[in-house]
Amino acid sequence: MTASEVIEGPEAWHGDALAGDERWRFELEASDIAEIDAALAVVQSRNIAWAEMTRADFPLGGLVAKLDLVAEELENGSGLANLARLPVERYDDEALSHIWFGLGLHLGTPLYQDYRGLLMRDITDERQDTDAVLGQRFHARDGSVFHSSKARTASSGPLRFHTDRADVVGLLCIHQAAAGGISELASSVTVHNEILERRPDLAELLYGVIYRSKLGEEKRGGDEIYALPVFGVRDGKFTSHYSRTYVEAAQEIEEVPRLSQAQWEALDLLAEVAEEISMEMVLEPGDMQFINNHVVYHARTAYEDPAADGERRRLRRIWLAMPNSRALPQDHAVLWRNVEAGAVRGGIGQA
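Request: output the structure for the sequence above.
Response:
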């Protein structure tokens, strides 16, 4: 397959159509919650820390079949799944970590989200200069502060359409915002097809390399410049990896080749089309949203938290390598390390 071919299938959707579709919506039933409670009791009775759990430590019965359907929808369906009705108000914070990590283990392999070995992260407004706290301050060539993706995520500001460094990202909603914080989702396959129809010349550019910077995310430090296409296809399966923040950061580094005007135009069109064909999702407490990063872009509107004494918006994030994942093009190994189908890949390197 080349940049001249439209990609068809269930992962090529428009937001207005998918919003009315039930194929990606799943709910926990009373029997599922009973299984979760029983598994929680097992790990608590054995004093197993959530980060040290294995799949066998968190035994589930019939719920496994539902999680298998979730995994199937993520890889061979729309690339999106929402599993609702976890009664988060019943559990303390540690129990929620056990439950969320346990469910993740039944879907795939949890991945590190930073070089310090972080396996789960709360997405909330940290109300601080996160980059400065972590010692990862990055400056643009004009001397202004350039905020990393991590710092932007840890604020209440909007997030542009992007993908994460994992086959699947899962978000458990614990508390909602007082206003805003709406999840926006777009099929990167449909974005590809729309760009191909409108501007095939720009689609071709997105199959070429775009330089990015890891912004010092890896333990070995440095800017970690790498070249990776935005679009790729292998064995008939599409993938897109993209975050404009990392592209902009790379352009602030002297030795990185400057993007052409046409390349910037291609990235602008990508953002424009993603907005056009996207759908919105309001996450309720107890909702678990799963996104296949290879075929779905996600974004977030700005939000406001409740008054000072109220609970902040909080989503608990997990990254998963999926056993049923697609093979990726060989030139994607620069980021994913292992590009074969079903491989444990992605995440932030620890060495």
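The chain has a mean pLDDT of 93.
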